[in-house]
Amino acid sequence: MIKYLGSKRVLVPLIVRTIGRIEPARTVADLFSGTSRVGHALKRAGYRVLANDHNAYAEALARCYVAADRDAVGSDAARLIAELNRLPGRPGWFTATYCERARFFTPRNGARIDAIREAIARRDLPPELEAVLLVSLMEAADRVDSTTGVQMAYLKRWASRASNPLELRLPDLLPRALHGKGRALGLDALEAARRLEADVVYLDPPYNQHSYRGNYHIWETLVRWDHPEVYGTACKRIDCRSEKSRFNSRRAFMAALESLIGALRAPALVLSFSDEGYASRAEIETLLAGRGHLTVIERQHARYVGARIGIYNPRGEKVGQVSHLVNRERLYVSTPEPLAAAIGADAAIATRPSVA
């Protein structure tokens, strides 16, 4: 899967194990699905997953990894990926914008991206099959980019991987989950909370100033293929200036989270939150006090790679040192009854009785 700020790659086993202790749980709604790494793992574990994210690239990832089933689209996707891999490069808008005006990819790979994305657009494919191809292209581009992991800037000197030839691969598609076919939606999280019913809701909201649209604007454009107006050295989409999430605002965050939790249509909630976020542990516990039995699971976690290697300006020059290399990731688990069993000895656990 793509490199991603806030990825729960290391925490995924703990998240799946935690949800496995919630009885009965068959359907899980993930309202900020991002890369769908969590949704993919839950589907593998047999849950019906309802994945939602308002960014187009994240919706495509969810359609590939949660909604698309291997038996339905796998063979067609493999055949089309082989055809697309044989296409010669043809430079176009993407190459001019992200390889010449900016330097996120080499022009050779940019020309391949242009040619493949145009070919996908011309085919008018069913949504799930198209999503698999788009994710294949996104992940191929991610393997040959020249960044520190986010698209706020590109490196001053080409990353060694940037010289590798772009190659599509079939994403890790799963068969249909035991408890039913998954869904992928592209709604605002509050609207998704009002619409979706589930046994468990998993929330991993943005909780600091980092905008996912701004950090991954190239993937948003690659999926939309709308050739937007861009600005700045990084050639960010113009809508990065206007489309701001309430969860990226310190002032608006708590009210946004309270509204979201109040709208949930599920008896159980698992909220993933870092100590780098806008809310303290005490504030989160107070917010969840009326929902039922609360379990808080804490684990130390290395910060994302971009934070560990330093602070860079838009020209890719190192301009500062990071303040710390480790943070605390917490799962706040709100259930009608205490969890069925212990989560494991690899995390610190605190529980609080039900609140009437």
Can you describe this structure?
The chain has 356 residues and is α/β, with parallel strands linked by helices. The chain contains 13 helices and twelve strands. The strands form three sheets. An eight-stranded mixed beta sheet has the order 3-2-1-4-7-11-8-12. The chain has a two-stranded antiparallel ribbon with strand order 5-6. A hairpin with a 4-residue loop joins strand 5 and strand 6 (236-237). It is globular and about 60 Å long.
Q: Give average pLDDT, whole number.
A: 90
Q: What level of helicity do the residues show? A: 25-40%
What structural category do the secondary elements indicate?
A: alpha/beta
Number of helices, counting only DSSP H or I runs of 4 residues or more: 13
- Overall shape: globular
Radius of gyration based on Cα positions? 21 Å
DSSP strand tally: 12
Strand order of the largest sheet: 3-2-1-4-7-11-8-12
Beta content comes to 15-25%
What kind of sheet is the major sheet? 8 strands, mixed
What's the domain count?
1
Low-confidence stretches: none
What is the string of helix and strand elements?
HEHEHHHHHEHEHHEEHEHEHEEEE
